[in-house]
Amino acid sequence: MTLQTILPVQAAQIKEWAEARGEAAWVTEHRLQALEAAPSLELPKPEKTKLDRWNLSAYGTFKAAEAVGQGTLPAAAKDLIDEGAHNLIVQLNSGVVHTVLSEELSAQGVIFTDLETATREHEDLVKKHFGSAVKPGEHQVSALHYAAWNGGVFLYVPKNVELEAPLQAVFLSDDASASFAPHILIVADTNSRVTYVDSYVSAGLAGEVLHNGVVEVIALDGAKVQYATVHQFGKEVTDISFRRALLSNDSSIEWIVGEMNDGDTATDTATVLNGSGTNSDAKIIAIGSGSQKLNYTTRAVHFGKSSESDMFTRAVMREEAQAIINGITKIEHGATKANGQQAEKVLMLSPAARGDANPILLIDEDDVMAGHAASVGKVNPEQIYYLMSRGISKPEAERLIIYGFLAPIIAEIPLELLRTRLQRVVERKLGQ
Amino acid sequence: MATKFVIEGLKAEIEGKEILKGIDLEMKGGEIHAIMGPNGTGKSTLASALMGHPKYEVTAGSATLNDEDLLDMSVDERALAGLFLAMQYPSEIAGVTNSDFLRSAINARRGEGNEISLIKFIRQMEKSMKGLEMNPEFAHRYLNEGFSGGEKKRNEILQMMLLDPKIVVLDEVDSGLDIDALRIVANGVNQMRSEDRGFLIITHYQRLLNYITPDFVHVMMQGRIVKSGGPELAARLEQDGYDWIKEELGITDETVGQEQEA
Ligand SMILES: Nc1ncnc2c1ncn2[C@@H]1O[C@H](COP(=O)(O)OP(=O)(O)OP(=O)(O)O)[C@@H](O)[C@H]1O
Ligand SMILES: [Mg+2]
């Protein structure tokens, strides 16, 4: 192909930003390498969705961020922070502006800082894992992410350290001209345990923004990671997020994802079950409204023996939202006694909405269990009648049924605060 | 005002097929009416048409509760006007707990700004559940989901007790109940008897009427009330079946749609 691809990110820019930030040379080099590969790479191809017509160019320019105290954070971010959060990172547009790590955790050797700082202060650890789960060369979007990423989170939990209270991060985009591409890297060392919760939000944007985000979770032997995230960007934001966990022997990941954006969204939440005895559990709830184009993909790739994965997606589609919901269970040869289960359910609230549940099982091993269930349906008029026959109004009856549809996943959310917050966002997305 | 429920010349059809061929019935507060009749004669259709099930189209007649036109109301408005139907086949609704549902239903009656306090609600619910010998865990189960036939019926009665309606229609609330449950449910109904509440009990069996003595018994065939009487009519039906009525009226097939064209 001789077609010249004009990239939305330029090498000169990257060098300029790097200099402005005093970035380590290896980091800048890593960026430039990723950028160089970008033109020859294709766009990612989520099942049944073509990204070529999406607006994937609103990278903006890097804008230096100034650290602020919790009191002076923008309201949109403050709203999402649990009172008395002892471990917190807040990113505003291109950079992290607020970091708190309790003495207790830092005394245990926990590292919780923005990724830019981590590349300087924990070079070896970062180098070892950064880009190991989601690789720069996978497609053009990942290449551009690795060229342009900013702010971000690095969380390291040392061997045998078990953390009860969740660590929290908030990512806020409120300047349409500023680039916004956080990268989350979580490394849970042997037999450690951690819960991390984050929220993605936008406010007062005067133009289009692309969120090109990557989440990497590295769970070493016996580690247990719980990752909960709620995306609630406004309609100006196109959200492309790749989340991926690599599991070593006997480790586990629990993904809890709330897809509550108002703009076009393509997310891919995947676990690679490398080790034996590993466990991945993904729960996704999603609401689409307006004329959103959506692709939610969950994937589990089994290499390890006796590895288990569960994936549950429940999506509600309103108005003219168009959603493709993929569940892909891949069991590789040699992953004996693996068990992969998935279920995608879509509730359609309007005749103009589209929801396509697409379960895919790819199995290269005989001695395994795998199952899937998928359904797309409307609110059952018999149920509405039953509720109304008790005096409940039609809108309230619909509300109860829709909440009931999402409840089995919401009820599983381990943190009460996240549960109530998600409930609020759900209400907003449902227009109530 | 004393409760007065009047059905006049009610005709209803489903998917273009006329099922109710003109029902006339008048009930006052304090009265208990039983409707009996063979399978497929329109008993549930009458109940559904009164409640406003979307599949049933009323084509003629009227139904008023205390002079208010029920047929002009939406389903929830009929409920708020005081009509309650314990359904033959209650819906299962996953994800909605029984207690959340009951509270929504109670609050719908009380109106905005006048919601029942949580404590008071729980106290009322637990008291009624206890009376119905329901395991308290049923408050937290999803609405009717996975309930046994008998458990669903008890849950219908629980709703009736908490919602305090003026006219109660019980559609085969006794079917699927074991002997103890039958007594418990009947006690629940008897407790709710009052001067300003009327009951319309659809049943196949005398055994429920042994516990709840009706003032009037009506027999439905071919979408009509073909015979009415006192409690002795139910006893005779229990003993002799329906053949004698069919003979008396010259009906060969009692189900809807089987009558000879006149
Ligand atoms: N959706 C429908 N389409 C066509 N016919 C219907 C439909 N629903 C009900 N019917 C018919 O209407 C008639 C009356 O039904 P209904 O349920 O009212 O009977 P019932 O007297 O309550 O019977 P049972 O004692 O068995 O409960 C039956 O012949 C039934 O087949
Ligand atoms: Mg019936």
Describe the structure.
The complex is a heterodimer of chains A (432) and B (262). With 432 residues, chain A is an alpha/beta fold. Chain A has two domains: 11-274, no CATH class; 379-432, no CATH class. Helices cover 22% and strands 37% of the residues of chain A. Chain A is built from ten helices and 19 strands. In chain A, the strands form two sheets. Chain A has a ten-stranded mixed β-sheet, covered by helices on one side. Chain B is α/β, with parallel strands linked by helices and 262 residues long. Chain B has a domain at 4-92 and 165-249: P-loop containing nucleotide triphosphate hydrolases (Rossmann fold). In chain B, the strands form three sheets. Chain B has a six-stranded mixed β-sheet, sandwiched between helices. A four-stranded antiparallel β-sheet of chain B has the order 2-1-4-5. In chain B, strands 7-8 form a two-stranded antiparallel sheet. In chain B, a hairpin with a 2-residue loop joins strand 11 (216-221) and strand 12 (224-229). In chain B, helix 5 runs parallel beside helix 6. The radius of gyration of chain B is 18 Å and the shape is globular. The chains are: A alpha/beta (432), B alpha/beta (262). Residues 14-15, 17, 19, 37, 39-45, 88, 255-256 of chain B line the site of adenosine-5'-triphosphate (ATP).
Short description:
Chain A has 432 residues and is an alpha/beta fold. Helices cover 22% and strands 37% of the residues of chain A.
What strand order characterises the main sheet of chain A? 2-1-5-7-9-11-13-15-17-19
Structural class determined from secondary elements of chain A: alpha/beta
Distance between the termini of chain A: 50 Å
Supply the CATH superfamily name of the domain at 4-92 and 165-249 in chain B: P-loop containing nucleotide triphosphate hydrolases
Oligomer: heterodimer
Q: What secondary-structure arrangement, pairings included, does this model have?
A:
The complex is a heterodimer of chains A (432) and B (262).
Chain A: H1 11-21, H2 25-37, H3 75-78, E1 88-92, E2 95-100, H4 103-107, E3 111-113, H5 115-121, H6 123-129, H7 140-148, E4 153-157, E5 167-173, E6 183-188, E7 193-202, E8 209-219, E9 224-232, E10 237-247, E11 252-259, E12 265-273, E13 279-288, E14 293-302, E15 308-317, E16 322-331, E17 339-348, E18 354-363, E19 369-378, H8 381-388, H9 394-410, H10 416-429
Parallel strand pairs in A: 1-5, 4-6, 5-7, 6-8, 7-9, 8-10, 9-11, 10-12, 11-13, 12-14, 13-15, 14-16, 15-17, 16-18, 17-19
Antiparallel strand pairs in A: 1-2, 3-4
Helix pairs in contact in A: 1-2, 2-7, 5-6, 8-9
Chain B: E1 4-14, E2 17-28, E3 32-36, H1 43-51, E4 56-65, E5 68-69, H2 75-81, E6 83-86, E7 93-97, H3 98-110, H4 118-131, E8 142-143, H5 149-163, E9 167-171, H6 179-192, E10 198-202, H7 206-211, E11 216-221, E12 224-229, H8 231-240, H9 243-249
Helix pairs in contact in B: 5-6
The complex binds adenosine-5'-triphosphate and magnesium ion.
